[in-house]
Specification:
With about 425 residues, this protein is an alpha+beta fold. About 35% of the residues lie in helices and about 20% in strands. It has 14 helices and eleven strands. A hairpin with a 5-residue loop joins strand 6 and strand 7. The longest helix has 21 residues. It starts with a strand and ends in a 7-residue tail after the last helix.
Length: about 425
């Protein structure tokens, strides 16, 4: 029988696309920390020696975009002549930002339900910030109810950054990528780790050695000892003699970050979510305030799927929700359990409709999305802009709470309780 393999990748905070995501979300943090009602759609582009910030932002906050960008890049680790080619202190920063379109603003601030006087419910007042479809997913492969390939890939990327920042491996530089391939058995359960890949930016000279073949041997040994071993320890039973470890397979990785490749906000949406294991609606998260359902409804959909799996109603669950711009109520909600549910998917969809309120303002209030930056010292969304928006153990995320498990169990028996 042919092996069934599935692969997910992740990237570190110094990857050029992730650098842009973090600047976009640092701008969002700064706006919401001062003015929780800020409307933000911030895009960032980075290339050799240059950062460009653009978008539509309406806020009472006076934002110093250049300082936000430089501080973010410096904290990532690109500062000084030996930081990998890109320097927060000397790069150019261009800004082209205008206010939110009044056409979009009026539709979002006063939803169709209120404009047409169909409803006086306060939660019907805020319309969706855009049309589109969003997915949330959960499965029981890991304790955090995430697919194992992306969970391990994100954990490896985060560990790679930590050993650099903590000085354990001071020759590392901010850019890096990880990739994990899992072999699944005939029941769809993880059987073994087939391949682990780590590509990490590094100094040209390590311990006085500039011979590249020796440098790469040194890096490979350190990756196995300080990054791979502690990260996959709890899944050690999935490693066997045939597991492949590929470290810097290109043979050299000195030039990285925006110096080596252009970066753009929203270009790592699969890394941000489920590593390709579940479907994606196509909308990015970073740089968008919570009225944008691309972000807030994706968080809500993950929350629902996780609680369904956490309640034991399915072994895996995917939730889709869709919206029309300027309309508060979702256009559609669907649930798929891929044959693992304790009841029909249509029944679960009906339960979701009765238990969860997926109007944008209800989602914002449930997770306190507009106030999270202020409650976290002015920085929240930038923290989720690298290493995944879901399944995090290092950050407390409100959409990861399993607080609807009992409600869902009761709902399955016909006792609905609206959130």
């Amino acid at each position: 029988m042919a092996k069934r393999l599935f692969t997910s990748e992740s990237v570190t905070e110094g990857h050029p696309d992730k650098l842009c995501d973090q600047i976009s979300d640092a701008v969002l943090d700064a706006a919401l920390a001062f003015d929780p009602a800020s409307r933000v759609a911030c895009e960032v582009f980075a290339t050799t020696g240059l950062i460009v910030i653009g978008g539509e932002i309406t806020s009472s906050a006076k934002l110093d975009y250049e300082n936000i960008a430089r501080k973010t890049v410096e904290e990532i680790g690109y500062a000084g002549p030996d930081a990998g080619g890109f320097d927060a202190h000397t790069c150019g920063v261009l800004v082209s930002v205008k206010g939110q379109s009044p056409d979009i603003c009026q539709g979002v601030s006063t939803a169709k339900e209120h404009r047409d006087e169909e409803s006086s419910d306060a939660f019907d007042k805020l319309g969706a910030g855009d049309q589109g479809l969003m997915f949330g997913y959960a499965c029981d492969e890991t304790p955090e109810l995430m697919p194992l390939p992306i969970s391990l890939a994100n954990s490896l990327a985060l560990k790679l950054a930590l050993v650099r920042k903590q000085g354990v491996l001071p020759y590392l530089r901010p850019d890096g990528k990880t990739q994990v391939t899992i072999e699944y058995d005939e029941k769809g359960l993880p059987k073994r780790i087939d391949t682990l890949v780590i590509s990490t930016q590094h100094a040209a000279k390590i311990n006085g050695n500039t011979e590249n073949s020796e440098v790469q041997k040194y890096i490979a040994a350190d990756m196995k000892e300080f990054v791979i071993k502690p990260t996959v320890e709890k899944f050690g039973h999935l490693i066997d003699n045939e597991t492949r470890f590929l470290v810097n397979p290109s043979g050299r990785f000195v030039i990285g970050g925006p110096q080596g490749d252009a970066g753009l906000t929203g270009r790592k949406i699969i890394v941000d979510t489920y590593g390709g294991y579940a479907r994606h609606g196509g909308g990015a998260f970073s740089g968008k305030d919570p009225t944008k359902v691309d972000r807030s409804a994706s968080y809500a959909a993950r929350y629902i799927a996780k609680n369904i799996v956490g309640a034991g109603l399915a072994k895996q669950c995917e939730v889709q929700v869709s919206y029309a711009i300027g309309v508060a109520k979702p256009i559609s909600i669907s649930v798929s359990t891929f044959g693992t549910g304790k009841t029909k998917d249509t029944v679960l969809a009906d339960i979701v409709n009765n238990v969860f309120d997926l109007r944008p303002l209800a989602i914002i209030k449930k997770f306190n999305l507009q106030n999270l930056p202020k409650l976290n010292g002015g920085a929240f969304y930038r923290k989720v802009a690298a290493y995944g928006h879901f399944g995090r153990n290092d950050i407390k995320l409100p959409w990861e709470e399993l607080d609807k498990v009992e409600v869902l169990k009761k709902a399955l028996n016909g006792s609905y309780a609206v959130a």
